[in-house]
Amino acid sequence: MKSSRPKCGINPFAAVGIVTINRMGINPLLIMIFLAPIMSSAAPPDNDKSNCAQCHPFEVKTFHQSAMSRAAQTANFKEQWQDADNAIACLDCHAPSSAHGVTCNDCHGESIHLKVTATMDTDVCARCHDAPLENTYRHYRSRPAALAKANCIDCHMRPSDLGIDHNFRGPDSPDLLSKAVTLRWLVQEAGDPSIYLIIKNRTAHAIPGGTSGRSLWLLIKNQSGEWQPMQRFGWLQTERKYWIDYSLPPGVNRLRFQIPEEGLSIDQPKLALWLQIAPGKLQIGNHSGYWLYRGDGILKLSEQVDRQEGSQTQ
């Protein structure tokens, strides 16, 4: 969504000063040339901090701590934006009306005092979260019936005694990630080195969500104690440069994997799900992502796994 910039872009005192100097015989063009570097280095006019904070100090404070407020300044965005040849269309969502990121006006409007409610939040969020290589809203619309009542505000914005938290909880919120998925599996009998998995995505949208740079990795620990990738979820680019959405849909997902033979044991396998925010190849640690699951989620023999209907074979 494109949003117009605030109209008051010139300091009235500066304007008066220029007029006064001009009457004294000094060329105003020289003054503007002198001030140009200062004006260009400053952030674009942003009424959010001055106007909104007067009545909503908690909301403004928490919002300016969010990733959305600096959506055009993060290292991940800059790397992917450079890969996209600095496409101006990217700024329609990452910096609609500010050089740094999203502002209050971008969601709430400038001329009206718009209160975003739970019944309309998906439409507001969809302005940017339903875009090329951004599948969050599309998967949200096709979520299973069990998640029909879920909405963006309930999960990503917490109410408090001070107001509504506008930090927009996401991958950097441990309490949110701890409830995102459950993972259980069953190892087939000898002679069929397969793992049957039930991955329950408890969010109302696909994982990893976000743009093409994010990824979700299913890992298995080998006998050397190292995590070895089995499957990558997210956007996949083909050799012909086509993009395929292979995210983990919301709800229950049943999958079957062949266990790699190199250095692995199927007696008591350890699996994990690693949510990587940094684009590129698998990078465990170094602030590149977050653990969604690690541990032993072996199913009991009495628990049945649907190996036919509704299952996906990898």
Task: List descriptors.
4-stranded mixed β-sheet, 314 residues, alpha+beta, 5-stranded antiparallel β-sheet
Structure, explained:
With 314 residues, the protein is of the alpha+beta class. Among the domains are: 7-42, no CATH class; 174-313, Sandwich (Immunoglobulin-like), CATH 2.60.40. It has eleven helices and eleven strands. The strands form three sheets. A five-stranded antiparallel β-sheet has the order 7-6-5-9-10, with no helix packed on it. A four-stranded mixed β-sheet has the order 3-4-8-11, with no helix packed on it. The chain has a two-stranded antiparallel sheet with strand order 1-2. The relative contact order is 0.11.
List the secondary-structure elements in sequence, H or E.
Answer: HHHHHHHHHHEEHEEEEEEEEE
Structural class: alpha+beta
CATH topology of the domain at 174-313: Immunoglobulin-like
Low-confidence stretches: 1-24, 26-50, 300-314
Q: Mind telling me the C-alpha Rg?
A: 25 Å
The CATH class of the domain at 174-313, by name, is Mainly Beta
The percentage of residues in β strands lies in: 15-25%
Main sheet: strand order: 7-6-5-9-10
What coarse outline follows from CA principal-axis ratios? globular
In total, how many beta strands? 11
Largest sheet: 5 strands, antiparallel
Mean pLDDT: 74
Q: Distance N terminus to C terminus?
A: 38 Å
Number of helices: 11
CATH architecture of the domain at 174-313: Sandwich
Sequence-ordered SSE layout with sheet pairings:
Layout: H1 12-23, H2 28-41, H3 47-55, H4 57-63, H5 75-83, H6 91-94, H7 104-108, H8 121-129, H9 136-141, H10 152-156, E1 159-160, E2 163-164, H11 174-177, E3 181-187, E4 194-201, E5 215-221, E6 227-237, E7 243-246, E8 251-258, E9 271-276, E10 289-295, E11 311-313
Parallel strand pairs: 8-11
Antiparallel strand pairs: 1-2, 3-4, 4-8, 5-6, 5-9, 6-7, 9-10
Helix pairs in contact: 3-4
